[in-house]
Every structure is written in structure tokens, then in C-alpha cells.
Amino acid sequence: MLYGWEMITEKEKRLIAEGIKRGKALGGPYHLVLFPTDRCNLDCFFCYTEVLRDAAKELDWDVLKKALAEGVLMGVKSVSLGGGGEPLIYRHLNPLFDFIEENRLKIDSIKTNGTALTEAVARRLLQSDLSRITISLNETLPAAYAKMGRCPEPLFYRAMEGIGNIVRMKKERASLCEISAQVFIWRENFERLPAMLETLVALDVDVVYVNTIDALPTDLKMTAAQKEEIRPIVRSAIERYGTRLQFNLSAEGLQQFAESELYARFPQSAILPDVCPGTRRVEYCYIGWYAAVIEASGDIYSCCHFACDAAKSLGNLHERSLKEIWHGKRANAYRREMRHLLLTEADRRLLPRKARFIHPLCLERAACAFNYYLCDPQFYLDMENWGEPRRRLYKLSRRMKKIPIGAAAKIKKLLSGGQAIK
Question: Please, are residues 138 and 163 in contact by the beta-carbon 8 Å criterion?
Fold first, then answer.
């Protein structure tokens, strides 16, 4: 489970479930994803948030504090930190930590480049019951790190020191926090994957996340021959390190291979013990009823994948309150589109013509962790049990170009359990 889902009550789960049925929020948010700054001390050539770098916005503390305070009153129990930019160089980091501690919020997770992960920062993160931290190291050689990050080599050593700090603090506090280090492989470094893994495992991290680069130009992607060359390298790595490794090789078309190799040696339950059994998809994205993303510009987003696209903003904190945005028209439009995926089994043939918020990742079960791993398995199964008997009528209503007014009203009533669907 993700984003502190384990902290919500059964009553809150029922509110989320009822909201999904109606296509609007009846409670929450229960979690806030904070992207407080667009500034970064690296300039990674592959970063998808590079478009934010020129403006380098940073959310005023007064604005963020007001939103957080309002969120606490609305039910927020946990936060996570990311970006955008590098969250640990946010100018108001200490006041943010103070607020989190004073309001007994949990820091569920953080994604960082590790260069500002001092001993003091590591201690404060763990004091707030941090569940997981991902350090994007990118590379394990100083020169290669500097090339990928377009930054001075000394930052590599600061990042390595940051990993050491969080590992040491975790041991001192006997914390259960999962520490993962991320590296990227591409045509210029894939042959060194064994050495990269050896370096990271020696740092005593819990997980090594091997990623590929989505935005690479075609001429920088692996050739067909190189893709064949990396297969035995990945296979050997899995044999040696097992479930200590996680992969996202989709950008090079190798994810299915990596998963099959991993699952051949370890059942899925050993890797993700709290997922729904079976191969049929019964899970859909319910993040819009549970969490919201606050970006450095003050824009609120339903999903972190939209945080670079102002057109997908649900509203801005400089203009409206968190509560107004959470219950606003755009937020409910997003929720109705996610509800549509549940009721059509994410059938591409039935996508709304004017869908605004359906991301390609929403359509595949394992393409995004929030599709299948945000909630507990029972919640997914309960929603599937609600959705399954309603799908036939709903799909019929989507296929029919013209529905008589009376028939349309009856269909809507059946689908909503008596509640009108707008």
C-alpha cells in the first residue's frame, strides 16, 4: 500500500468507496503530495520536470502552511515529498518539518537526489515515521554521474554521503523505513550494470531500483543487439540479488522480460505481498478520492504525472482554498473519468471523446503503482464487486449514440444505486 493508506479508518474507506460510486469526493483528502520547489542543484538531461527549471518556482511558506492546516482539518494524515525540483533544498524545509511534527503527520515517502540528505535531515525524516525513501543516484561513477546530471563531480560524493546518512540513522533508530537507490541504464552504461549493483548493495540499501529513461531520443536508445546483450546481465543480477532488485525497463521494451525472470524465481507474493491475487485486472486508480498533489506554483493536481502540465491543474492555492479545489468541478471531472475506467474495464474503445485526465498509464494494470498498489486488496475487490454487475448497462450506454430520455434516466439510476449521475 502507498501514501499512508494503512492509516485510514474503515469509516473513511466507506466514504471513499461511496464517493467512487457517485463520482465525487465525500471526504478527504487523506494524503498530500508536496512538490514545494522547482529548484534543483542538478540538471539531469533526461528529467521530465526540466520544463519547470527556467521559472524555478517555490511555494511561499504562508501559502503551503495554510493549505496544510486546511488539509489537516479535512482529514490529511500523511504527506510525501518530491518534485518538481529537489525537495530537500526547499528554503522553508525546517518550518515544514516543524509543522509535520506538531500535527503528528506521517511522512510516507520522499524522492530525492540525496545531495542535501544530511544527518540532521535524515534524523528529522525518520522522526516522522518515514516509510520509504528513494535516492536517485543515477550513476555510480563520479564522471558519469556529472555527465548525466550536468553538474560538478563533488555532488556525486555528497549524494553517496547522503545515502550513508540515512542508512546509518535507520540502524540507530531501528526504523523500518525502506531505503532504495535508483540508477538509470541506457546504451552508454548498461554493460556496467553488475558493477553498479555491487556498489549500491555495498551501501546496505534495501532495494536497488533499475530504471530506463523515458525521454531518450531514438538515437540514444539501445539497439536490438544491445537489448539482447543485456538480457543475460539482468538474469544474472536477479539470480544474485533476488527481490532486492526492482525494475522499470519499459522505456527499452524490456520490462516484461525482467518481470518474467523475477517471477520465475520468486512468486509475486514475495515481491508485493499485499496485492490482489490472479492475473485479471480488478484494480483501478482511486487516487482522486484519496490524495492531491501541491506543486510549487500553487497548482493542485490529481496525479503526479500531470504536475508539469498546467492545463491539467484542478485549481491554484493563490486563488482558491484547498477545500474549494478538492470539491471543485475539475476535480470531480477527473473522478468521473477514473470511475469510467472502472466501469469499462479501461477499454480503450470506450474512452470518452473529450477525456481530459485519462493518462496512458491509467489503462494498463502494472504501468503505474497507483493502479494496483495504493489501496489494500480487499478495497479493490469490494469496488470490483460493486462495478462488475453494473458494467454491462454502463458499456451499453456508452455504445448507444442515442438513448431515449426515459431509458437514460433508468440506466443512470441503476448505475448510481439511486443517486443521479451528472
Answer: no
Residue 122: count of CB within 10 angstroms of its CB: 25
Mean model confidence pLDDT for the chain: 90
* 237 close to 201: Cβ distance less than 8 angstroms: no
Separation of alpha carbons 358 and 363, rounded Å: 8
**Contact indicator for 366, 390 with CB cutoff of 8 Å:** no
Total count of residues recorded for the chain? 422
DSSP lists the bridge partners of residue 135 as 112, 181
Residue 407: pLDDT over 80: no
SS3 category, 122: helix
**Distance between CA atoms of residues 295 and 74, nearest Å:** 19
* pLDDT band at residue 420 under the 50/70/90 scheme: very low
Q: Which single residue is written with the C-alpha cell 526492482?
A: 246
Q: Among 86-95, 209-218, 250-259, 264-273, where is mean pLDDT lowest?
A: 264-273
Q: How confident is the model at residue 69 (pLDDT cuts 50, 70, 90)?
A: very high
Residue 125 contacts residue 101 (beta carbons within 8 Å)? no
With residue 81 as reference, give the H or E element that holds it.
Answer: strand 78-81
Instruction: Take residue 50 and report the three cell numbers written for it.
Output: 526540466
